[in-house]
Amino acid sequence: METGMQELLMGFLKTLPINIIIIILSAALGLLFAVLLTFVRLNRIPVISQLADLYVSFARSVPGLILLFIAYFGIPKVLPLIGLGTYDISPMHAAIISMGFYHSGYISEVFRPAYLAVEKSQHEAADSLGYTPMQKFFRIILPQMVPVALPGYGNALVYLIHDTSLIFAIGIVDIMGTAELSISRSYGINQILIYFIIALMFSAMCFTTDGLVRKLEKRVAIR
Amino acid sequence: MFDLEASYEMFLGILGVLPETLLIAITILVLSTLLGVVLALIQQYKIPVLVQLTKLFKLFLRGTPMVVFLYLMYYALPAIGQFIVTLLGIDYNMNNMSPLVILIVTVSLTLSTFQSEIIRGSFLAVDPGQIEAAQSLGYSFSQTFTRIVAPQAFVHAIPDFANSFTVAIKATSLGFLITVIDIFAQAKIMAAQNFRFVEAFMMVALIYWGIGILITKFADRYENDVRIK
């Protein structure tokens, strides 16, 4: 029991970085894609913006587990069809791509209202001062958007962290994978205890993220 | 290659399990709303001890992914059930508890923390002036609640309830991990029979997407109908 528990805890510490790497990379991919998506949806370029709207509704209504499976099994099948050659996707890549893309759907829904919350008169004022669109965005709109969007963005990050608990389903040995392995090897450790430890680890990640976002909220708050 | 005929068969096969999935989701929605009301009331009236426990419960569930909680409950719930049954002096073996019960209890508990926030928020959205007006007209507490506050709070909560319903349907997809057969588990079973994983997952994703759009559209229309114009 003692050695089994020690081995399990070591296993958790060894595999925790996998969860953290996937969280960071899919959050980065999600942010990048969400900015693009929001831009397209706000500009209302015909067809493209409707496709973007459809994509957002898709990302929000399909369970993360299924998107994970679609990426893992689908990408190697779809790429040859559209003439991009064969590619055996690794579970890590599938996880980052699927999590990143559907996270982008969520945060695009956070960014869009935040952009629309900036008063119209501010746009006009910036225009009348002769700001270029770039100057207007970076100096007037973005600083006002950030405080509005941050709480929603923090929530979306917490959900992303939750969803990385699913990656073991495509064979990645993360903390959940380690737990599954140790249970199948049956060290005789109480399963309830194992999942309770994992719950605490995820909680710690979520609360750290939450705390960081709150700190940032205080710093950028409009006074 | 993507096989259309196989996809169509999959689609029909998956649709066959849809009623059960919807039934599970509705059960979860009802249970979590009831529990959400209790949690909201505890927080609203600041009942000592219980309010601290509620806060701890919410904190734990906010940080814990549903799949981790599901596994935790998979092992813990029969043990808890057995403890209670033994305490009551009933001779019953809880260890063969149905996975469906475990899924429903787990998701309902998780969703109840969101529901309580929705309920609290929608009650706060009712203008306090209206409550004062009702009191000045001599309405009793329960009359004020059922005739003035509840109808307005309900309308306010409709979009969030629709969201919760989507969350409940999505959450049932985790059921396959503990052998509950919903539309996703059905898709996996059908895919394993002829190795058409992409078709199966695309079809089940389409169904989820369709349900998501239908729920949003239906909730929007219903909200428009009942909103005071």
In short:
The complex is a heterodimer of chains A (223) and B (229). Chain A is mainly alpha-helical. Chain A has helices at 2-43, 48-61, 64-81, 91-116, 120-128, 133-163, 175-185, 191-220.
Descriptive notes:
Chain B: This is Amino acid ABC transporter permease. Chain B: Its main location: membrane. Chain B: Belongs to the binding-protein-dependent transport system permease family. Chain B: GO terms for molecular function: transmembrane transporter activity. The complex is a heterodimer of chains A (223) and B (229). Chain A has 223 residues and is an all-alpha fold. Chain A has helices spanning 2-43, 48-61, 64-81, 91-116, 120-128, 133-163, 175-185, 191-220. With 229 residues, chain B is mainly alpha-helical. Chain B is built from 9 helices and no strands. In chain B, helix 5 crosses helix 7 (141-171). The chains are: A mainly alpha (223), B mainly alpha (229). Chain A binds chain B through residues 57-58, 60-67, 69-70, 73-74, 77-78, 81, 158, 161-166, 169, 176, 179, 191-192, 195-196, 198-199, 202-207, and chain B through 1-2, 59-60, 62-69, 71-72, 75-76, 79, 166, 170-171, 173-174, 177, 184, 197-198, 201-202, 204-205, 208-209, 211-213, 216.
Helical run tally of chain A: 8
Gyration radius of chain A, in Å: 21 Å
- The geometry of chain A reads as flat
- Provide the gyration radius of chain B in Å: 21 Å
Give the averaged pLDDT of chain A, no decimals. 88
Question: Based on the structure, what is the oligomeric state of the protein chains?
Answer: heterodimer
Content of β-strand of chain B: under 5%
Give, in order, the helices and strands of chain A: HHHHHHHH
Number of strands of chain B: 0
How many domains of chain B, as an integer?
A: 1
Give the helix/strand class of chain A: mainly alpha
CATH arch. level architecture of chain B: Orthogonal Bundle
Residue share in helix of chain B? over 70%
Give the amount of beta strand of chain A, in percent. under 5%
The biggest beta sheet of chain A reads: none
N- and C-termini, Cα separation of chain B? 54 Å
- SSE order of chain B, as H and E? HHHHHHHHH
The description of the largest β-sheet of chain B is: none
Protein name (chain B): Amino acid ABC transporter permease
Transmembrane segments (chain B): 22-42, 63-85, 197-219
GO molecular function, one term (chain B): transmembrane transporter activity
InterPro entries (chain B): AA_ABC_transptr_permease_3TM, ArtM/GltK/GlnP/TcyL/YhdX-like, MetI-like, MetI-like_sf
